[in-house]
Amino acid sequence: MSKARELDRLQNAASPEDIVEASITTGSRSIAYTYNDPVIFLEYAVDVARVARRRGIKNVAVTAGYIDAAAREELYTFMDAANVDLKAFTEAFYKRLCTGHLGAVLETLEYLKYRTKVWLEITTLLIPGHNDSPEEVKKLSEWVMTRLGPDVPLHFTAFHPDYKMLDLPRTPAFTLTRARDIAREVGLHFVYTGNVHDETGQSTYCPGCGKRIIGRDWYDITTWRLSGDGRCGICSTAIPGLFEARPGSWGRRRAPILPNFRS
Ligand SMILES: [Zn+2]
């Protein structure tokens, strides 16, 4: 998506105030900084986030987590949540395919968990033959479990061929389900599958009683058994996360927000 030409045509000039105004007008509760990584437009993201925070809108960074310490502190001072791509669990993958370093990303994950109040989730895109072996998935899950604890949500998402990786197949649903099973066996409480239709793998289960407490079918909420204060409605176990008192009803729709923007 970061390479999509179509996005060029969707870009309009927008001041931080314009963006925050659009969020308020559409009833949005948060702004996500993504496509591309906000690390590459950090100054703008921070300018927008500063205004958003003043107006009671939450800020979410969707990022690869590869960022220098000083810039990291500046960005996350204004973020309420982050979804960090953990692209694989080998230095070889990071070096060969990302020209980055696994260690630096792991450091960001620990920084977010222990040095900030940012709500943290992790996403790993499983690419057939590159990072999807049960051994690697287990090592990654064990690192999350021992270094970050059982309550950090972990999403395994499906790859589809694009850009410079057209020679590989889509990730089979089985690979995602297997990864989710491995991570749950390791002890993680909130493990999800993504980019596939899998209501079981996209729903949230209470770590106390095991019951499904938030059911999801793509972007539709199909079950909601949370009390107003973020506890399981069946056994009252506190569920970690930032929850609204009631579920929203956005579903899959996309709403145009352009009228005030200059193209
Ligand atoms: Zn429960």
- Low-pLDDT residue spans: none
In DSSP terms (H or I, runs of 4 or more residues), the helix count works out at 9
Number of strand elements: 9
Fourth-level CATH superfamily of the largest domain: Aldolase class I
The CATH architecture designation of the largest domain is: Alpha-Beta Barrel
How far the N terminus sits from the C terminus, by CA atoms, comes to 21 Å
Strand percentage, roughly? 15-25%
Going by helix content, strand content and strand pairing, the class is: alpha/beta
Average pLDDT: 92
CATH class designation of the largest domain: Alpha Beta
Report the principal-axis shape. globular
Q: Sketch the major β-sheet.
A: 6 strands, parallel
Radius of gyration: 19 Å
| CATH domain topology of the largest domain | TIM Barrel
Describe this structure in words.
- The chain has 263 residues and is of the alpha/beta class.
- The chain folds into two domains: 6-202, TIM Barrel (Alpha-Beta Barrel), CATH 3.20.20.70; 203-263, no CATH class.
- The chain has nine helices and nine strands.
- The protein has helices spanning 6-9, 16-25, 42-54, 69-76, 91-98, 102-115, 134-148, 173-186, 199-202, and strands spanning 30-33, 58-63, 81-85, 119-126, 154-158, 191-194, 204-205, 212-217, 220-224.
- The strands form two sheets. The chain has a six-stranded parallel β-sheet. Strands 7-8-9 form a three-stranded antiparallel β-sheet.
- Helix 2 crosses helix 3.
- The longest helix is centred in the middle third of the chain and has 15 residues, at 134-148.
- It is globular, with a radius of gyration of 19 Å.
- The mean pLDDT is 92.
- The structure holds zinc ion.
- Residues 206, 208-209, 211, 232, 234-235, 237 line the site of zinc ion.
- Zinc ion (ZN) binds at residues 206, 208-209, 211, 232, 234-235, 237.
